Structure prediction request, 219 residues.
Amino acid sequence: MSVRRVDPVQPESFKFTAANAKWAKDQIKKYPKGKQASAVIPLLWRAQEQHDGWLPEPAIRAVAEILDMAVIRVLEVATFYTMFNLSPVGKYFVQLCGTTPCWLRGADDLKEVCRQVIGEQNQVTEDGMLSWLEVECLGSCTNAPMVQINKDYYEDLTAQSFEKLLNDLRQGKEVKPGPQNGRQFSCPEGGPTTLLNGSTSSKSKRSTSSKATPKRGGK
Ligand code: FES
Prediction:
């Protein structure tokens, strides 16, 4: 894992909005007295969402104060989990899966598109619209290769469909999450390949089960 440090350029301060402060209080109430530190991840996540997708150092301090934790403990959490961005990200933050199934299915081609359209990892485009990062498996291997952009998955990508997706997002066009090749969810490409004619009739089930049931007494 690469070294993760807070960004050299930081805002002066961070404060939860009134709505988020109330939400944080409600989260803390979920845990037994004295165990409020258990709310550290949800609070950091909400701080990141409030701060345009990245977590500034003052937000880490603010969360530490709210939870009565040492700042270093909160910093440890923020720097350990890659879900927390420690530097600014684009309006559309692309997490590109480079793990084996996606790699075998063309993740390298997608990375090249990122380099061409966006630049190197963690760079934000001049218009502030895009940035990208390579991540490990996002659990959508059946639809490899895939990326996560903000909260949505875009799957079954090719270099062409991915480049179009990035350009559409940049131009504010509507895009559709999920498989980009017409596949339904993670069903077989081109439609179902089994259970096509209802062949699992009750008759065949009965005959199978009667053969498989041994007689009592073992004879
Ligand atoms: S390997 Fe890419 S989603 Fe699992």
